[in-house]
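User: quick one
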Amino acid sequence: MGSPFSMNGGACVAMVGKDCVGIACDLRLGMQALTVSNNFPKIFGINDSVYLGLTGLATDVATVSDLFRFKVNMYRLREERNISPDTFANLVSTSLYERRFGPYFVSPVVAGINQTSGKPFICGFDSIGCIDFAKDFIVSGTASDQLFGMCEGLYEPDLGPDELFETLSQALLSAVDRDALSGWGAHVYIIEKDKVTKRLLKGRQD
Amino acid sequence: MADRYSFSLTTFSPSGKLVQIEYALNAVNNGVTALGIKATNGIVLATEKKSSSPLIEPHSSSKVALITPNIGMVYSGMGPDYRVLVDRARKVSHTGYKRVYNEYPPTRILVQDVAQVMQAATQSGGVRPYGVSLLIAGWDDGILPEEELEVEVEGEKKKISGKTGGILKGGPSLYQVDPSGSYFPWKATAIGKSATSAKTFLEKRYTEGLELEDAIHIALLTLKETIEGEMNGDTVEIGIVGPPEDGLLGYEGVEGAKGPRFRVLSPQEVEDYLTSL
Amino acid sequence: MASILPGAPQEGIGYSFSQAAPNAASEPRQHSFYPYSDNGGTSLGISGTDFTIMAADTRNVSGYSINTRYSPRLYLIGGEGPENKGARIVLSVVGFTADGSALKERLDNIVKMYKYHHGKPMSVSACAQRLSHLLYSKRFFPFYVSAILGGLDEEGKGALYSYDYVGSYEREQCRSAGAASSLIMPFLDNQVNFKNQYQPGSGTGHNLQAVVAEPLPRERVTQLVRDAFTSAVERHIEVGDGLQMMIITKDGVQEKYVELKKD
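Assistant: Done. Structure below.
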């Protein structure tokens, strides 16, 4: 069976640009080598300016995304405000650590813009909540090695929204083409202070 | 026979009253007066510190307590109950918030949490309500961009900060929490024995666009009206929510680190304010 | 009874080793020897119209220890004397260094013998097939190496062959092998073969016109090789220290060495 992290496959990547952030994921859902669905997005909207990417075991991706939808809705009702990406990152971290000895098999990525400071924010986590605050990019999923290579080669700081979209998309598409467990199209979100653009990429269908 | 409803549990009387709560409020209304005034740039909490004997060490008891670096509180009523609530407030602000979100709770959230603790004591088995009312004062950073606000003070137009309190706008908030668990936001208020007369006094003295220094002044004047003994640094206790005190951090050179806004004034500082009264 | 189990806690005075030495001499003991190890490293080859560039880092590791910061992974095959003067074929081997050097030694011998027998240097395609046989001859005790062979074909064009452990091989435009190959390979697909790149403004869906891959100029390829390695060095602990490059043209093989990060 192998690791629970690689049973269903999937990839996610987030990048920081100038006054914008991007987050992208593939669409494959598999059971080992068998592809079951080519429409399984792994990015979930937390609010207008915060997005959560989840790769790993598909059942945990669904459970954890629902859990955070619940937690964030409760936060919004109680505090009458949207959660900021930094605060949400800490919520993700503590929620995952609560399952320290029986973890969810997911590798989350958070991307968003802090509406108070206007600053772009990205971070990644291991399955028990250790936060990786990166200034440039975060990768996760079965194509993480390939994504590291792509991002390290293509990334440059202070890209505008359009350039960021191009860099992020090229990084993801080329990475998942070298990973049998990821691919089958992609979703790409470009988040600006008062605008979010979501694009569907077709990509290789194999 | 009100006694029939006075056994250990808080039980409804046929008229729909929870008399245990009313008794708890009586305990508050017999307590030493405490007051709070919200200014544009801070809040003052003040109370009288009574000592039953001249032999007591004045510094061993404190009535104004820090809960989070930006939130403090004071009480009127039963001292021991208050200290339990201070412990609970400090604990819940960490377990229920700081340890989850890595930031301190906004004032209203803390007030709700403390109110929940007090409400639970009116409904749980084997417990009695807390015999205290609290004044909770705190500063929130806010998430909306700051804007200026125009107010009219005695026919004159004056520009003040738009940070008038709350999670969204940010700024100072002052809340009163009662034994029943109900809570109210105030511009200025008083609790305890002379609450009514103190509030009447505050209504006369309070103006929009008040600054912290003026608020401290008014707080002492109000206290002076009600206080029984002598007023000095040992008999008056003041807590303020003011600008961040980076000197109280205990370290320096950490980028972005802000000192606590809430602090209790030293007896010397109180004396200084009293002499300029 | 407990003494039957190796390492089981014993009564009385304990020893820091699993079995008490003096009276354990006659008891059966299991020894094991594993004939392979992995010395890390990454290699990369790109072929152009009239050249082939081979590159590999020079860090040699065992687990988390660095054995040396300069051990070559590129070897000249054929040519004259111990210096391999005039050689036109380059072999890169990553994986188990001992097997790599044994394989290079054998291939070098074969190519040299070929010239003595036939009076002409071996072609790259012939050498490539011979290398495949060499690897397959040890099908059941393989050389633990990923090999890449580079040179110029009979028409003078860049030729590049990549291999698996047991000799399955293919001629390609570019290939990366070894520890950080998973990082470098998709980068090469994208930057050398222009995979996933389309002509701007050519439309959407099926109207999209793919950017056609053309052999790249030498300067561009050299820069890509360096970029690929500096990227791999950032993210893979087994890659670093130095970058050995060999550029094969009709004029001979030019060797370059560039420093990489040593952390």
